[in-house]
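Case study B.
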Amino acid sequence: MWLPIAGLLAGIILGFLVSVEIPLGVVKYTAIAILAAIDTILGGLRAQLEERFDLSIFTTGFFANTVFAALLTAIGDLLGVDIYLGAVIAFSVRIFGNVGFIRRDMLERYWRGTRQGTAAGQASR
Amino acid sequence: MALIEQSARGWRASRLQITLAVILAAAGFLAVTQIRNELLIRRQLRVPSQRLEELGFMLHEMERTRGVLEQQIVQLRGQLQAYEQGAAQGRAQLEALGQQLGQYRSLAGHVHVSGPGVIVELNDSPFPLRPGDDPNTVILHYTDLQGVINDLFASGAEAIAVNGERVIASSGMSCVGTTILCNTKRLAPPYRVIAIGPGDEMIAYVQRADGVVESLRSFAFPVKITKAVRVGVPAYRGSYRFTHARPSGPFE
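Model:
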């Protein structure tokens, strides 16, 4: 469980250390891609908490969502439609939904843990 | 067997963790890079990246309008130059025109003029009219005044005024009762004719034998002719009206 968190921290630190300049025209797409990535990660966390996490679903979801969000935004720009607004709304709704579910799952786990005892709570983690 | 199973499970678990770690690292890296870029954009351009496209469009538009305006500037500069040239040429022409206009004005009697000349004073006969006499023999007629003015013009007068009324090209003399009209103004005796011109010639011509003054004197009308070093003739005060006459080209 600690390794993914360490990976996240490593990525953040790497991002601070290495300065990669994103071209001005691409900034919009990468923003949407990051939104999609955050959604996927939160979805994965929720699945983990609900004990139905699947690595292949998570991995494919992560890359597919990220790339597709950026692609859709680009297509929207080509068509002259602000599809990225749709993407922002969709991902935001999903992120909030996932955050809500994660909160409920965590509370459930906490209640179960207090009922079953601290040791069992630790083990279920 | 159990060991292998455990190690396989451990391997699967660690593989999962490693994959997760890599994905999360990528996500974190991407997010941090994005945030740093956005902050850089905001710090450098002082606008959020969402407005960049709009601003870019505005910039494009502005550049286009600037191009058009620059063309206009070039055009207007050319016009200005042409105007300045025209003005430089026109200034000389204007001066010449002004001089011409002054000449024409003085010719038309639109300016006060002064210079050497003669003063001819005429008056009705001082002898009282006896019963049965013709009143025409003691009253000065417009024809007499007209004759004097004609003589003065004929002998070189350049400007003539009768009792302060400038005689111009269209001035007509007419008789109304015992007064004379000149420029539709009533003139009453004594008549004071002021003429600017060559004094000696004018006096000689006006006083010639068989002239108007000679005949007036023979009828005992008092005529006084004086030469003046400097006399003033006022400007014509009326207006020119051309309701029938129209300017036309020269006739053959």
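The mean pLDDT of chain B is 82. The remaining cases will be described in the next quarterly update.
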